[in-house]
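Per your request, structure below.
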């Protein structure tokens, strides 16, 4: 679990920095704090431990990455700004890698409980 979490954190920090740089370049909005619902969900999962935490964390990673991939695929087709189009296109393989690893871990976790 730690390997997946570390990979996701490292890649997302790098991706956020690139997005922040783009926002500055085009005088766009900066990153906003998490929505209250997302903060609540993170706090709920953070309060868990052991196998329960592992299951909830990996489920969250699968669901969130599926949503992100859909959003990024849409933006790769709709983005008018070349830099933004390049950003979302470059980030898609990373998000897909995260989803694949999370799904593999999810499968192992749930197979182990049967």
């Amino acid at each position: 679990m730690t390997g997946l979490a570390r990979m996701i954190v490292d890649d997302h920090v790098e991706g956020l920095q690139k997005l922040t740089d783009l926002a500055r370049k085009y005088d766009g909005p900066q990153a906003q704090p998490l929505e209250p619902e997302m903060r609540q969900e993170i706090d709920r999962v953070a309060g868990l431990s052991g196998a329960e935490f592992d299951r909830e964390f990996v489920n969250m990673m699968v669901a969130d990455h599926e949503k992100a991939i859909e959003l990024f695929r849409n933006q790769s087709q709709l983005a008018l700004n070349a830099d933004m189009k390049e950003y979302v296109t470059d980030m898609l393989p990373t998000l897909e890698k995260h989803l694949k690893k999370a799904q593999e871990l999810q499968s192992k976790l749930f197979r182990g409980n049967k």
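The chain has a mean pLDDT of 91.

Regards,
D.
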